[in-house]
Amino acid sequence: xVTLLRKLFIxxxxxxxxxxxxxxxxxxxxxxxxxxxxxxxxxxxxIALYGASKNNWIIPLxxxxxxxxxxxxxxxxxxxxxxxxxxxxxxDKDHPFGHQRIEYISGLIVSVFxxxxxxxxxVTSIKGII
Length: 130
Prior knowledge:
Layout: H1 2-9, H2 19-53, H3 58-87, H4 102-129
Helix pairs in contact: 2-3, 3-4
């Protein structure tokens, strides 16, 4: 499926040595992640609301938690997409070597999201045990 998407949306998709083509790969992956996670959030949230309307709270709470997790993934995909779009800007007077390092900054932001979520889950779990 990945190869099909690459063939459909990226001209010269095999030329990964070209930074513009690599950027297009990143943008495609981020857009695919955004669409997929948005659909998952809507589906899981809708099913959770339906289950809650039937006075069954066990499954809806789990689905609601999973929908929130997908919402976090959606935010990470948005940061990735913005990072790739900004990194594709051509070199200018202030950035004579281009803007490719923005990819590292967006990766750092996504890493902070993941680490923060992990720490929050750890703290919540420890509080639940105590």
